[in-house]
Design brief:
This protein is low in regular secondary structure. The protein contains one helix and no strands. It has one domain.
Length: about 50
C-alpha cells in the first residue's frame, strides 16, 4: 500500500470483501455513522459498536 511512499495512514473504502481482507492490518478505525435506513445484504459491524 502506501508504506513504500512513506504514508502513515490509509483509508479503506470498500465493500464487504475489501473490509474482510484488510481487517488484520487495522490498528485504528475512523467511522462515520449515517442516520438513514437503506436496503442491502451486507453490513459492517451489524451488531453495533
Amino acid at each position: 500500500m502506501g508504506i513504500s511512499t512513506g504514508e502513515t495512514e490509509a483509508f479503506i473504502i470498500g465493500g464487504a470483501q475489501i473490509y474482510q481482507s484488510t481487517m488484520n492490518m487495522v490498528d485504528k478505525m475512523v467511522l462515520t455513522e449515517v442516520d438513514m435506513v437503506t436496503e442491502g445484504d451486507a453490513f459492517f459491524l451489524s451488531g453495533g459498536i
